[in-house]
Protein 1
Amino acid sequence: MSFEKTAHPAARIAMLAWPILLGQLAVICNGVLDTAMTSRVSANDLAALALGSSIYISVFVGASGVLQALSPAISQLNGARDYAAIGAEVKQGVWLAIFLSIAGGALLSFPQPLLALAHAPSELHEKSSLYLRWLAPALPATLGFRIYSSLNHALARPKNVMAIQVVMLALKVPANVLFIYGGLGLPALGGPGAAVATSVVSWMTFAIGWLLLRHGSYYEKFRIFEGSFPAPDWKAQCALLKLGIPMGMGYLIEVTAFTFMALFIARLGEIVVGGHQITANFGTMLYMVPLAIASATGTLVAHAVGARRFDEAQRIGDSGIRLAAVVSVLLGMVIWFSRSAIIRAYTPEESVIAAAMPLFAFISFYQLFDSIQVTTAFVLRAYKVVVVPTLIYAVALWGVGLGGGFILGFDSWGLLKGKALGAAGFWLGNSISLGLVAIGLFIYLRQVQTRLSREEK
């Protein structure tokens, strides 16, 4: 019997998760490179990068989250061995990516309403606007590559995606040097230069992925490139949107909680926002570990659900949640004891280091909650259950996390008697909200699993 059928669920998850993790880390390292290289230009460029990237990430994650509806749909179809339907889903996914690129590109090209929330100085505002305008052309390419990666992850074939993402990182290094610092007759663009590099590399990555999809023999059974390309199937588009809009909203809520943190923290000055940017950047990189485990778990759960093996789906889901929790606790301990060295690897500025140091306490200790919530969310998506989790995210992350963070950060209600916590207040509110999300999602997952197990019997 094959490894997939005989191994413990945790081993199966780990075998699928490690290439997903390496690929995701390669993607996140692009942001790390941008932050580290821009911080050596000026604190103003770093602040513009923090502000601009937080808005871009919100737009990209929202659009990408809607497109992620392909993953559970294709995973369940793969479990049911319906290969022709998988090809049809990919084709409709292309149309959905086009529509999302148009809407997202407009937001990136005209970001003034979002930037106005930060009350940033005019120079910072201008640099952030330029950064976003240069990133707008990257959106269609990144969403196009998302289709390729969603297909491969849903088929439990993440290694090609990983390889392309590693190549992307290798290309990003010289591109950043060229556009941030200047060279070969090109001017030094500073922070906005990182956006130019991202756009160039994103289109190269998109081309590589789709060439492999076009010429790879494994994908022939899906008939993606046979015949003329179909027009949008509005029934199929509605089905994807029915699943994708709540998923996209869930991603968007999670990311905008951090986006608005950055926007509000920007009011405290470029040193504080620089410390926040380093903390958020490293926290995002850490998040890739439970996210990879969650993605692998969701894929295997969806395969079992597609084959109508609900008890097996529950065993896989429970194993994935436990694995993510254990790994994240261990990571949190390592971060706590090495936080000073980590921050100094980002920047030599002592003032920025001092601003980031207390914030690292939060990313050290909320790892457990974050790992449970993201893995549980992916398991629910594997069942195509998305509406209630989105509502839980909205109440906890926006209401408790962002709202509570604003109260603590600025002492807007006078509860702290004028001793506002600043950036730490926002991080505290966010940590509490993640704990609430983890508890809420886990309880709801148990209800879904119990109901389906009864139906199976």
Protein 2
Amino acid sequence: MPTCTALIVAAGTGSRFGGSLPKQYHELAGESILRRSVLAFLNHPHIDNVRVVINPDHRAMYDHAVGDLNLPEPITGGDTRQESVHRGLEALSEKPKPDMVMIHDAARPLIDAATITDVRRALDSAKGAIAAKLLVDTLKRANDRTITTTIDRANLWQAHTPQAFHFNDILVAHRAAAGAQMTDDAAVAEKSGMSVSIVPSNPDNMKITNPDDLDRAARLLGHNYGDIRTGMGFDVHRLIPGDNIIICGVTIPHSFKAEGHSDADVGLHALVDAILGAMGAGDIGSHFPPSDMQWKGKDSGHFVKHVVGMVSERGGLIAHVDITMMCEAPKIGPHREAMTQRVAELLEISPTRVSIKATTTERLGFTGRGEGIAAQAIATLRFPG
């Protein structure tokens, strides 16, 4: 299958937005604008890699926003958007280069999975394709706020991103157009003689330009993800002699280990069941049966990433998870922060959306006797409603 890399352009200073913080690093409904844009592509099944073009002066803000997502090193942008994209493409031209590239402005954080899919599929029969919105308002040209003419809106579209191309073609086009100061990549492609197709964009795929846009985007997020679902998961593992135990992705030195077919991470197993439960998609055993030897000793983080992909494919997002460990030992408190960070990384959400707690059973039952360890998880998911 052809490979496709998403190139997220985030090198601007956001001068029209105002203030000292570039707009791509402002928070939108609990997460930065840049993070939302990156996650939309990072979670998408048709995207193989994500690279971000940034202003090097913003590196600390970039690391704070997406540093936990294990992205490749960011690319240094230029003084204009066109120069930043060109630099990004040149960086991608190093082997192995992608077959296709999808260029997206970080300031469009509401891009949806369906639009990404449609733009990518358009490349199966076109040299280039962009997401765009058909204009429905009457257009006026004015001089000093006095109308001089009415513009025929027939066949007029408002260009959005992502804009996707076969990689070699758009790289050649950008090299030829260097210094021309064009405002989008479709214009660069057109200048080279390339035919570019239009894909209808989700109308909510707005660009954040001024502070009022943040409020509108926040309202759209609340409206679009009004289908709120909750799932619960529970898991138990027997404890046997060993030298460490894995809980929520963190290895803890211990005189016992959890017995299981995979790495027996009871916290992550409960979490996977909770997410699957919220989707009505069965349980962990139906997706990763213990009778299948390919899962023997497998890192349970693999299972988490699989269900995160399922949520993304359905157009949803993970709003919050709450995991409770039930055991007499080991003590969870000293490792809670590391567990929280690891779970947030696997779910690709902010650590503020992850809660990890522990309790004992007052030495009652199998957990109280140290025979086993249990975990309960609750996951809250939001889908378009």
Protein 3
Amino acid sequence: MEKTIFKMILIISACFFAANAKAGGITMTKTAIFAGGCFWCMEGPFEAEKGVIEVKAGYTGGKTKNPSYEDVSSGMTGHVEAIQVVYDPAVVSYERLLEIFWRQIDPTDSGGQFADRGTQYYTGIFYADEEQKKAAERSKKEMGSSGMFDKPIVTQIRKAADFYEAEAYHQDYYKKNSFQYMLYKKGSGREEFLKETWGKTREKSLRKKLTPLQYQVTQEEGTEPAFHNEYWDNHREGIYVDIVSGEALFLSTDKFDSGTGWPSFTKPIAKDSVVERKDSSLFMARIEVKSRNAKSHLGHVFNDGPKPTGLRYCMNSASLRFIPKEDMEKEGYKEYLTLFERDN
């Protein structure tokens, strides 16, 4: 009898906790760990993101317990300089954190980062669970096929190990010693690399990778002709991905004939697969749709779609690449095959 009562108390407590968490009474946080070379340069971009609760500089990946900065700097501990990000997944997704991470580093550098050389400055993503692992692997693949870099992506994806906080002197160094920090960031070559990579170099690589129409649509917010595009009348089973980065966007099971002459969908493959923003161009009030990672212009979303969503994601074929269902596994989209089983 006592055991039964005890079990009931546990069940009620669990339900109460879950209800409060869902209602907003408790913030359910998660943790992400990234290594991007000097940890001074990694804290700021994450702390500026809404939904990030705390960022700590530290050491991880090695076998030495409670290492000091001097220990890690020797390159003999196996540890790398890293940051631990505590975030609210209801506000910011892990995929968004990955996007921030890639934009702070040179993922093709196998000897360190910028002026900092040695294994202690290797780049890495340390996953906490299978969900993070899959997201990290997918983002690395997307980065590799984005056309951003001519060399292979060497950033490691590893299982999270013990994380040791760095000394107080290193926490929020970019804020406490802003002048010295800016001198270091500029002098190390990181600042110039990031500006160049996400500016002119990206434009040049994309112009090589994309057709003129694909570039005009994805990068200049153009619109392709209705009824004269690749996928408006495509009825095959499969997945539609970003032409630039390869990130998964839409499933064929959510595609419908809107009569507009453009491929239309009732919803994206996941809520955070796309970014929506107000668009007042052409003297109209519309909602533009972009891919989350590559920021490719995809099209617009309207409130005149069929049930159950009532939405019409009107996309440009030039922004998309279609992968037939039978090719999804070999193309690296195996995890999305279960979504077809769900819909059936």
Protein 4
Amino acid sequence: MQYNEEFWNEYADKNESRYNEEFSKYIRDLAGSLPTVQSILEIGCGTGIDLRLFPKTFQLHGVDLNEHALEIAKTKLSNVNFQKGDITKLPFEDSSIDFVFTHGLMNYLENDVLEKGISEMFRVSKRWIMHCEKYEEVEKQIDENHKFRNMGEKWLGYKVKFVSDVNLHEDYGEDKTRFTLLKKL
């Protein structure tokens, strides 16, 4: 899918209705339970709904392509470093972020962008990588904008250990959502 600003502006405006406090607690509690996590990066952060419950003791970063979403995020979260950015060129040094995550982003990416994005996530991650995405064993198109993917198999060529690769409970996501937590080796 080519970047469609109108689609993503509308998506940002509707993002509040997608806020799932339980899921935000889940991410916060997970990151807080992992050893030595101080810095967190959400790629495709949108309006920042998944970063809202993190305490100010964390160094929080959010990257998104959509300026409208970032404007909303900045008004709601003053303690997060939000930047306009692309998953294929993340504005961070190698191994500089303790916990890197996506939520509902990977299903929207073209295959070549996805491959570059995974490489960038690996590059900037110091230790932990997590994503929650709509899942199917075999990739299939959902609609004109996105597709179900088996994200676990995308990481097989990287030096990572699968800590968890399970379907989330239906309360945490629409459709079939897969939670994958990786430890960079």
